[in-house]
Design goal:
Length: about 200
C-alpha cells in the first residue's frame, strides 16, 4: 500500500483487532467508514470516545456503569443473598431480559483459558471473594457451558464451597458448546430455573 494510504491501513489494523474479524472483514469495515459522510464517521469516533471515558467498572460487581456503583448493586429491591457469576457484562443483559432473577451479579471479565494464556489471576476473582460475607447464601455459576466456562465454574466452586456458601450451576436447557449470549430467553429461563448445586 502506498505511503499516502497509511491512515487507511491503520484503520484496517484497528478493525482487525476485533475477535472474529479477519483481514477481509476489517478491510470492508474500514472502506465502509471511508464511504460514510464525514459527520457520521465522526459520530462513530465520538461514540467510542464517550463510551470509554464516561463508563467504567462498577466498584462492586465489575459491570459497566457511569457512577461509582451500578444500578443493580445500588438497588434496594435486589436480593443480596445471591450472586450470579458471569463471564461478561453482555451476559447480565441476557439474564435480566428473562425477568427471572432478582439477585446480584459479578462479572469475571473473561474465563480461565490456559490455551489462550488466561489464568485465574487475570479475572475479577479476588473482587468476587471480597464480596462473600455472611449475607451471601448462594453463588450461581452462569458461565457458558464450554470447556473454559466449565473449568472456570469448577475452579470458583472449589474456592467458594469451603466458605459454607452454596454454589450452583446453570443446568439443562443451554446448548453445550454454545455461548450464553446467543441463548434465547426461554432457554435461559429454563436453565436458571433448573440450576443445580455443584
Ligand atoms: Zn455493580
Amino acid at each position: 500500500m502506498p505511503q499516502n494510504l497509511e491512515p487507511l491501513e491503520n484503520l484496517i489494523d484497528q478493525f482487525g483487532r476485533f475477535p472474529g474479524v479477519g483481514r477481509k472483514g476489517a478491510t470492508r469495515m474500514a472502506y465502509e467508514v471511508m464511504a460514510m459522510p464525514n459527520e457520521q464517521a465522526m459520530q462513530l469516533a465520538k461514540a467510542i470516545e464517550h463510551a470509554k471515558t464516561d463508563l467504567h467498572r462498577c466498584r462492586v460487581c465489575q459491570d459497566y456503569t457511569s457512577g461509582e456503583i451500578c444500578k443493580i448493586c445500588a438497588s434496594p429491591k435486589r436480593d443480596r443473598s445471591t450472586i450470579c457469576v458471569v463471564e461478561s457484562p453482555r451476559d447480565i443483559q441476557s439474564i435480566e431480559r428473562t425477568h427471572e432473577y432478582n439477585g446480584l451479579y459479578h462479572v469475571l471479565h473473561g474465563l480461565i483459558s490456559p490455551m489462550d494464556g488466561v489464568g485465574a489471576e487475570q479475572l475479577c476473582i479476588k473482587e468476587l471473594l471480597a464480596r462473600l460475607d455472611d449475607t451471601v447464601k448462594e453463588v450461581i455459576m452462569a458461565t457458558s457451558p464450554t470447556v473454559e466456562g466449565e473449568a472456570t465454574a469448577m475452579y470458583l466452586a472449589k474456592l467458594i464451597k469451603p466458605l459454607g456458601i452454596k454454589t450452583t450451576r446453570l443446568a439443562y436447557g443451554l446448548p453445550v458448546g454454545a455461548s450464553l449470549e446467543y441463548a434465547d430467553e426461554v432457554t435461559l429461563y429454563r436453565a436458571m430455573q433448573g440450576r443445580g448445586e455443584m
